[in-house]
Protein 1
Amino acid sequence: MTALSILDPARALDQALGEASPDLLRELMGTVLNALLSADADNVCGAEYGKTSPERVNQRNGFRHRDLDTRVGTLDVAIPKLRQGTYFPDWLLERRKRAETALISVVATCYLLGVSTRRMDRLVQSLGIDGLSKSQVSRMAADLDEQVRLFRTRPLDDAGPFTFVAMDALALKVREQGRVVNVACMVATGVNGDGHREVLGVQTSTTETGPAWNTFIADLVARGLGGVKLVTSDAHAGLVEAIAANLPGACWQRCRTHFAVNLMGVTPKVSWPWVKTLLQSVFDQPDAEAVQAQYDRVLTNLETQLPAVHDYLDAARADLLAFTGFPKEAWRQIWSNNPNERLNKEIRRRTDVVGIFPNRDAIIRLVGAVLAEQNDEWAEQHRYLSLDILARARASSITDTTETIAAIAA
């Protein structure tokens, strides 16, 4: 497809109507856009295509094609190429999204460092990258690093209070000192004062230890994280201790999905379907009182038949049922880390392409860019929780705390 240098609207419309094409609007839009691009390139060159002029400062050199997704379909856009310099219609097309640029820079860095060269060659070709110089990679990485740095260090106090927070960690492979090792990539999300989900922070650590989580959460608090009433996570001991140390007054909700996996480990295989059904029945209740009553019945049923399972459930009761202290409309969003698991899948979709990262900076660059894009999307979506639910959640939490203090004093 070749862009027209001169467009005759009447002729183009007459021809399209005569052919009675079912994709009339898409074809007309493509014709108009390519004509505009051609005219814009002529303006950059200082003269029309194919014409001699003393004012000419550059010459055209063919086209490169790029797809443009529109409401009327995908258009084949012919971007004019110049003999000197480059031409790109920023007013029409985006160059690359942050996450895509991050992925390319990570791949290029891996390639330059000689990591899995055969696999990286195929990967680079699949991404449509003919070649990136070291200077191009450096400029691209520097720009991304600055964007990610600003995102990771932004103040949080203006967006708070963050009534509900969720935390999780992913294991990613990185090359360090000639070896491939696993590092923990810690991610925190929360529901801000406007009811939208927000990515609070991301950080890497050699292992998922208590001190690592303590440093991570302390940084979030220093940046303005406050008003937290409930934190949902798995039962990593270091994480639970860090939550208690840095977020006083916040309850801890043990993720029901992770708990089910742990419970399966102490349950005889033949009994697991029955125990799983009993556990699910607890979360199917209509209100907090019914949840507590059903939990009692489950414990009674297990006490004699499966005492080990009974003891495990009994010990986890307070942490597993912490969600009942908040409005029922928020239960599905706070009783497990499933919302964060979906975010993890999106991160994995990008990081699995790289496989082994050349260094930790590359992890932060790619994961940070993915999270920054996700944060922008969440800000444009409908509220994750309504303002009414958040107000009632904070009120119920205050009431529960008051009652607890009164009971202790009595």
Note: The chain has three domains: 9-82, 98-150, 157-404.
Protein 2
Amino acid sequence: MTDGQDYGQPGQYPQPGYGQQYGPQFQPHQPRHRKRSRAPLYAGIAGLIVIAGGGTAYALAGHGGTPSRAAGGTKAAAKPASLSQLKKIVLQPADLPAGWKGTAYQADPNDSANDAALMRCVGTRDTDGDKVAEANSDNFGLGNATISSSATSYRSQSDLGSDVTTLHSPKLSTCFGQMMKKQLATSLPAGATTESASIKITPGSAGGPANVVATGTGTIKVRLDGQQVSVYLTVAFITGPLIESELDAENVGTPVPASVMNPLVATVATRAAKG
């Protein structure tokens, strides 16, 4: 996770960056049609790159919770989590610090196409067709910051193995960056231009819970009316028994602080490990 400064009093952001407004042409925390896709989805200047669904998982042996044991002491095969189970894994309103307000998740109609395009770029298998169920939290906002999460169950361990191949691919960060720039070119408001856009996916927990199998950080810099606006992206990829979960955050001017992100990641990771 990218370390940042702490929030001040509950419900407040320190300056600069937190809570700053940029006028009617710049509305970063409006509800967006979003899904945790493996391809970036951008709506307005402060859109979040939402990464995962199938592109995040890690082999669960020793990482995603302990399989239950059947009678006689043998390990029972994991069963894909139901939608009701997944809804309990994602962020709940009570998980967020004071001041964060939730707006309902809305699906993106281009999701499957974006996933498939990213998999073609990386050269790995698209596992979207093997999803069993998927749950998405509200999009929680405070000032210009947004935090949200998802949890998805899959049919088999081979789906997760395929996805970790994607996660570990040296092509992944480059493919994300290319797709981000392409979508920004058609999504920004009139007069806005992209100066740079990049994201880096790093395998490992970054010091977090053991079933946090990768993290990502990204930056989008856009120039609008002579002003440069920087949007910072943070993502954590989490596993459980046949489960892939993700927590995403974005903010203008500075990353959402680790002091806010880390407890939320730990909460979701604990739930995902139990399945």
Note: The first helix runs from residue 83 to 89.
Protein 3
Amino acid sequence: MGDKKRLASWGTRLAINFFTLILAILFFWFLGFIIKDLRTLPGPDYQTVTEEFFDPKLRNESDVFTRQLADLHQTITKKEQQQKLLRSGANDLEKTLDRLKQSSVDNDEKAEELARTAWQQLLERQQQIMTLGEEIIEANTEVEKLLAKKATIDEQLSIQEQSAHGHYSKLFSRHRLFVGFYQIGILSPFFLASIYFLLRCRKSPYFPIYIALGLATFSQIGFLMFDYFPREYFKYILIGFLILAILWLLIYSIRSVAKPTFQRLLKQNRESYERFLCTVCEYPIRTGPRTFLFWTRRTVHKTVQKTDHTEEEIYCCPYCGTSLYETCPACEKVRHAQLEFCRHCGDKKNLEPVHESESHKR
């Protein structure tokens, strides 16, 4: 009995699963902090990298034209405001002249004198408005010339900027891939260690710890690959990995049926006996009060009959010929043929896995 693995209570198993999940989250956070710190590695500086691609003379000329355009726009704005004030004053003078003309009809000499003065001021205002208009037109013409010159320079600078940006993008992509491989390199020892322990220590009582570490590292590596690998390639990597994972699970499931491990075989046999089914072909074990009954895995507990018959009988499956109940050589009572120990005396029997091919031969 020393080599037997004791089955824990449901509460203990629930606690182990819960703490395994918590440990996986903590591992995930811990590895995430490492990855986040690695992302702070300094990359190429845009200003330094692109400086050599630009012509300083063109930049200076562009800056000069920009300042000149700003000054011209400011000048035009001021002159337009002056025009607006002069027009407002001219309108007031025209209204004054209309009132004075009405007074001059009555031969008012003072009104006539004021009318002549207002008329002279109105002419001066109009002359100033015309002068400002000509200056605004000249300023706008100068603005158009400067814009044309600046557009030519900006076009050349745009070509240089595209070359500089392309060079910077290459350097940044190279740096990003370097950081990505560096991060994966940091995670790889954790991932390989978890894979090693998961494959080699499956029967260890500390197996949930390895599961937590494996889930955390696998998740972080998956997120890294999604971030750094191009999208058009990542889908093939993801699908390829899923195919390998499903293929491995399918092979593992087939092997567990064709060549089950000893512990899995005992578990399957125990479950079959609990449901009164053959351990190989699952044909119903019809002995005692169940001789003329029919049941399945789901309905087996609904067919229980009250009876005083408590002893098993020597029995072989009528479909595949597997021995299910036999005589114990130690106590000579009927025991389960496909379980290790006799329920009467505890005598141990050496069982060998019955493969699927052998069951068909029977």
Note: Strands lie at 315-316, 323-327, 334-336.
Protein 4
Amino acid sequence: MNLPFLFARRYLLAKRSQNAVNIITLISIGVIMVVTAAMVVVLSAVNGISEYVDTIYSPFDQDITVTPVEGKTFAKDSLDLKSLAAFPAVERSSWVIEENVLLRCGDQQAVATLKGVEPQYLAMSEMQRYMYTGEAKLEGRTGPAAILGLGLKVDLDAPLDDGVFQPLEISAPIRGRKLSKYQQRAFENTAVAVSGAYTMNMEFDVKYAVVPIDLAADLLHYDSLVSALEIQLKPGSDMEQVAGEMQESLGGRFLVRSRHQKNAVMYQTNATEKFVAFLVLAFIGLIGAFNIIASLTMMMIEKQLDMRTILGMGATPRTVRHVFLNEGLLITLTGVVIGLALGVGICWAQERFQLVPLSGSLLEAYPVQVQLPDLGVIFATVFCIGLLASWVPLRTLSRRFLRGAS
């Protein structure tokens, strides 16, 4: 039988001669509860934002991207595609060509990034999901077709494919030709229809025009050259691990990067924001834990008679100290459990009822995502704060009050 725990459980919110002790105990539990719930809500909100950012960037940044270490392009046959496709985690892949071009439609023009892709790339990027108008396809009624970002379509006032006209003109500089010498002959031009327009985020909507890779290769005179190989992994795959294995397989001629590595600054910023928010809330919890010290101090003053009785029955001072240590841990544990439940409940309500809306955004409400590892870290952190607040002052206080009780 754990005697100290039984006494601690009996003392928790038991009727006392001084009602102020109960009030301070309730305040201690309330502080721990609020801090814990705040940690759950804040970290879940940061997770939600990070997941949303990852979602809007993932269509044009596949899980794995293979590029040359030197130069902008490489020959397809210099990369063993079959060996990469043989990796168990690989779902699909697509050769990609990227180059800046000039788009014209009537009197309107805009500089954009031409992205030449294979047909399976549309499924890899879930392009149909982001279509604002038209269809996600690279072949129109009159031949190859382009999919424009919504910003580009609006700026160019480009009509959708009607099966008759190819209104979008694409101009790109020919490799090796200097503009000052060849002037107009330094540019290659082609015309295509517009099959549709997508919207993902402001950056992509005004930047990318997606076309068939053969059209991009002919326009840019790339022949068998490409800019990159983009690879989609199966759900649940570890991008960093697969990228490392592919890098080891390919050697030093190619650079293999995961989506997180390509956007390292963005993901590192999100991680830093999450850590700072957690640190601030933990510090607030540490300050709030001083209520536990006050509660234990007043309880030890009130229970001096009980301590004298326990010592007279043969209990050791260590046993008495454990009574109040367990009391502090019970206060902490009660606050943590209620706080976790409250925090998860608030996040569930936000997802279910969209309590906090987001105006001027693609999302209707603030995104939240509760992650089990976060709950474990929160529980461990707050519990350690409670343990520290209960143990550090206990030795000094117990010596004083145990002398008074003996």
Note: DSSP finds 16 helices and 13 strands in the chain.
